[in-house]
Design a protein that fits this description.
The chain has 209 residues and is mainly beta. 9% of the residues lie in helices and 26% in strands. It starts with a strand and ends with a strand.
């Protein structure tokens, strides 16, 4: 039987979010236990809640929204590669020893995947412009990370986000890659068809090939 890895953070009220962002909450509008015909809930959450796909509108006013993102980039062969870097910029040399031949999508596994859903990582490693250029030269169409951003926590210029857009590479953030062996899988991580917003939560899975 083909194994499926769920690489999505669970959306719960205690899920850690970017400092200052909206935490997830929900309220009941109707309850079966109170005589209603159905249970009905309303949710409040950030577009960047948990495992999500950034949209270019997040960092440029003329950028695309999730509803118009290219779906084919979020489905297909993906390499999972674990690196030992704890902080600072991730560079191509961090992947020495990994077989990335034919890579189309790269999912970067770091220590951040070991954190519980309610814990926040601030001093996390992040992809450098050098790494993004290196991936683009190899034809990569998607980069996914288990960190909450593809830029340094304190960055104001978001060089990594802008470089990804320059190369037409889409990105996933806050993946959960704990206990996923390095290797090649089929990735499915579709953004919701939401217009006018800057990101979309996804249900990301890896299926053994």
């Amino acid at each position: 039987m083909t194994r499926i890895y769920d690489i999505t953070r669970t959306i719960i009220p205690s899920l850690a979010v970017w400092p200052g962002d909206t935490t997830f909450s929900f309220r009941s509008l109707a309850r079966l236990s109170e005589g209603a015909a159905v249970n009905l809930t309303t949710m409040t959450l950030s577009a960047h809640t948990g495992t999500h796909a950034d949209a270019p509108y997040h960092y440029t006013d003329t950028g695309a929204h999730p509803a118009s993102m290219p779906l084919e980039k979020y489905i297909g062969a993906a390499h999972v590669a674990t690196i030992t870097r704890r902080s600072g910029g991730i560079v191509p040399a961090d992947f020495d020893g990994h077989d990335l031949a034919g890579m189309q999508r790269l999912l970067i596994h770091t220590w951040v995947s070991d954190l519980p859903d309610d814990q926040w990582a601030e001093d996390f490693p992040y992809p450098t412009v050098e790494l993004i250029d290196w991936l683009a030269a190899r034809g990569v169409v998607l980069m996914g990370v288990d960190m909450p951003s593809v830029d340094d926590f304190n960055s104001k210029t978001l060089d990594g986000h802008h470089r990804l857009l320059h190369h037409g590479i889409v990105n996933l953030e806050t993946l959960l890659l704990k206990e996923v062996p390095d290797g090649v899988y089929e990735l499915v991580a579709l953004p919701l068809k939401i217009d006018g917003v800057c990101a979309s939560p996804v249900r990301a899975i890896l299926r053994e090939i």
